[in-house]
Amino acid sequence: MADDDEITAKRPTIYDLAQIAGTSASAVSSVLNGTWKKRRISARLAERISRIAEEQGYAVNLPARMLRRDRSRVIGMIIPKYDNRYFGAIAEHFETMARERGLFPVITCTQREPDLELEAAREMLSYQVECLIVTGATDPDRIADLCSAARVRAINLDLPGSRAPSVVSDNFSGALELTRVILSRVRADFGTALPLYFIGGRAQDNNTRERLRGFTAAHVEAGLAVPEDNCLMRGYSAAKTLAAMADLKIADGSGVFVNSTIALEGVVRWLHDQPNPPQMRFGCFDWDPFAAFLPQNVGMMQQDVATMLSTAFQLIETPPEGAPTLQIPCRFRPRP
């Protein structure tokens, strides 16, 4: 097996590419850094150089290129999870929208770990990102301060902060509507008027607090008081939700507000494990196309990822004064 020095020695340079293409190294450099049109290099030659670079396995030295430019054209995103459709959709839309704007998107997952979030932000800054979209961070203000010191703009997405502009879902209104629907279906299907259970999320998170506020407001409208024991917020993990479901001792005629599709996995596992599952109804904040067909499901609240990210890019392109929080309405999707 070749050692590292031998592998490095075999890597092509722009001079190698120039020799193969029968042109100058400066022409190759212009094609690879995207400035060939300004130098009046023909499209035919640019295409040939690009093809040769690909065939030879030439990799652009991105950090070195950034040092030679006034702008890096790199935009970063930190994201807490990849394991649900909501954050997966955020990552996919972010990449598409960034490229449409001539930006190079870089994404890293931080597992909802505060120290990892800060480390990821530092790494992004080392790559000279022009802006950092901070998605679902546990401490967005800490990251905003870091970015401010580096003169890099930060935009909070999903969870708000106080030191950078934020784009979030209208969690209160979405939860209010979803709770109304669950209560109505429980009454219609079982003839009961019991307060619902609220399960999933973290009590310290803005989104959970706002959804709990909407959940409570819907109960007040219905003349119902929610017992404190009905609300279990032990995090977003499926395993913790499964344990919480066992503690709730849900009976026939019950209704459950499930706070996230990750928590919903625990609910589904619990239902599967029951020898005689109770007659119950649930609704979930957020949306999953497979869970939408579960017989106990009455509907799901889908967050408008496309509008959230479009709004975030508008804030990047036209920076606002201060650190406003913009709320994007959600869409209720009934069970098919």
UniProtKB/TrEMBL annotation:
It comes from the Bacteria. InterPro entries: HTH_LacI, Lambda_DNA-bd_dom_sf, Peripla_BP/Lac1_sug-bd_dom, Peripla_BP_I. Residues 12-69 form the HTH lacI-type domain. Gene3D superfamilies: 3.40.50.2300, lambda repressor-like DNA-binding domains. SUPFAM superfamilies: lambda repressor-like DNA-binding domains, Periplasmic binding protein-like I. Keywords: DNA-binding, Repressor, Transcription, Transcription regulation. PROSITE patterns: HTH_LACI_2. GO terms for molecular function: DNA-binding transcription factor activity; transcription cis-regulatory region binding. Signal peptide: none annotated. SMART domains: HTH_LACI. It holds the Pfam family Peripla_BP_1. This is Transcriptional regulator, LacI family. It comes from Paracoccus chinensis. The lineage of its organism: Bacteria, Pseudomonadati, Pseudomonadota, Alphaproteobacteria, Rhodobacterales.
